[in-house]
Amino acid sequence: MRGLTLEPSSPDRWREVRGTLRRLLAEGADPAGLFADGAQGSLLEPAPAGQRFPTPRFPRGWQGPFRRVAHHRDPDSLRLLYRLLHRHQTEKGLPERALDPDVRELVARDAAVRRDAHKAKAFVRFREVAPDTFAAWHRPDHHVLPLVAGFFARRFGDRPFAIFTPDATLHVREGELTWAPGAPRSAVPDADGLDDLWRTYYRATFNPARTNLKAMRAEMPAKHWSTLPETRDLRALVAEAPARVAAMAARAERQPTVADVLPERRSLETLREAAPACRACPLHGPATQVVFGEGPADARVVLVGEQPGDQEDRRGRPFVGPAGSLLREVMASVGLPPGETYLTNSVKHFRFRGKRRIHDRPRAGEVQACRPWLHAELELVKPEVLVLLGATATRSLLGSRVKFRDVRGKVVATPFAPHTVVTVHPSAILRAEDGATLKESLSSALALARSLLSPSICRAATKW
Ligand code: URA
After folding, report:
1. Topology of domain 259-451, CATH
2. Average pLDDT of the residues in 315-325
3. Torsion of CA 278, 282, 286, 290, to 10 degrees
């Protein structure tokens, strides 16, 4: 009687199994006559007694499953593989017969090995056992270490490491993989600084609102817990989850608003100091800083734009980028002295387009959330003339029912100033193909705004 005896975690396991299967087919071994020796992990064969298949057929779709099932811990898997292959030589269409008990068994064992390999990739935790040398101990269900060795070598191969399992040990050094017998848990010392990193990471990513213990046990089987440093915190995290969920719900119910930070004693100065603490919309997160309005508290003209752009976000001042230069140029050309005007925006934070420093229009919710700041500025400055630059400023102060195109170039009534002039935004001029016409519109609107002022400022303006 001859047989195949496999080393528990031979890296060549699949090659050895494949060679044996081929030889058995060539010799005509009867699948029913084979038996597995559970204790030895072996496949024993009696004398061959059947049809020989010296050039066996092997279905392409079985390559992966066969290779994986060859690493299943139950030695009977080898008998299953031989039986399937033997049947395939004479039974047409066997691989497609999903309900065939042998095919089903192949699929089930393949899934078990796949799952175990996935767990090995997810749950191997390295410890620094010597300077820049790492080791991990892991207990897989099946002989999956050869299946995942390549993954670890590619991922961590830039420094020496070893993975110990009860069946075999993998050493990787300078890209070379070597194998040694298995080792007990004690082969790898218990804790080092990496454990703390894992624990911190796990605590930070643990979502108390999704604490499903059954799913957690399925995903992270308890037998791996002893080597997973993060599981030391699990009991506490689960225990405190209900309280954390309640606190999260309470926070979500009460979305922060500008009112939370608006100072009681109002001046442009106190507003400007309070604004950086505003959390009324998410724009404060990615923005470099809040860009508050700028100009004298007794300015008789207030110009309201959309929101700071890239330059403004970097420098913390409104209208200092290309659109601002154009605006200041047109203001100067019509004799609106910048020293007498207050420049501000509907939204006080820059909005990135994704991660790029490209201006993106503020969303309606952001305009609405920021509006109390603008109202507070207007209440303090009390301008004689308010100039709304573009659709966002118009929507913010006149409401979303008013269409910009209907009021553009007009003087409208608002509670914020005796005269409110609506005109185009300087950025629209920079973007437009026919910028000259739009620039003319802006210029006329600002000249109109100037003409609406009392003579004193006009006199001052002529000196400029
Ligand atoms: N556009 C605006 O609306 N405001 C600025 O401050 C700059 C560009």
Report:
1. Uracil-DNA Glycosylase, subunit E (3.40.470)
2. 95
3. -30
Can you give the residue ranges of every domain in the chain? 2-117, 193-253, 259-451
Q: Give the residue, out of 306, 374, 387, 425, with the most ligand 1 atoms within 8 A of its beta carbon, to mutate for a pocket test.
A: 306
> Are the CB atoms for 343 and 294 separated by under 8 Å?
yes
Stated pTM of the model = 0.51
Amino acid identity at 23: R
Strand, helix or coil for residue 139: coil
Which numbered atom of ligand 1 lies nearest the CA of 346? 3
User: In sequence order, what are the residues at sequence separation of 6 or more whose Cβ sits closer than 8 angstroms to the Cβ of residue 107?
Assistant: 65, 98
Ligand 1 centre to CA of 307 (Å) is 5
Q: For residue 264, report the distance from its CA to the centre of ligand 1, in Å.
A: 28
Please tell me the distance between residue 86's alpha carbon and the centre of ligand 1 in angstroms: 76
Matching residue, tokens 């003579």: 455
Token pair recorded at residue 129: 């056992």
Q: Using CA atoms, how far apart are residues 202 and 268, in angstroms rounded to an integer? A: 45
Q: How many CB atoms are closer than 10 A to CB 244?
A: 15
Q: 101-123 and 76-88 helices cross at what angle (nearest 10)?
A: 130
DSSP string, 255-311: ---GGGT--SS--HHHHHHHGGG--SSGGGTTSSS----BS-TT-SEEEEES---HH
Q: State phi, psi for 124 to the nearest 5 degrees.
A: -75, 125
CA distance 65 to 84: 12
State yes or no: pLDDT of 463 exceeds 60: no
Return the pLDDT at 462: 34
Two structure tokens written together for 329: 């140029």
Look-up: residue for tokens 């994704």?
A: 354
Q: For 325-377, write each residue's pLDDT tens digit.
A: 999 999 999 999 778 899 999 999 998 876 677 777 899 999 999 999 999 99
**Residue 10, pLDDT score:** 77
- List strand residue ranges (DSSP E) for 352-435, in order: 352-353, 356-359, 385-389, 411-414, 417-423
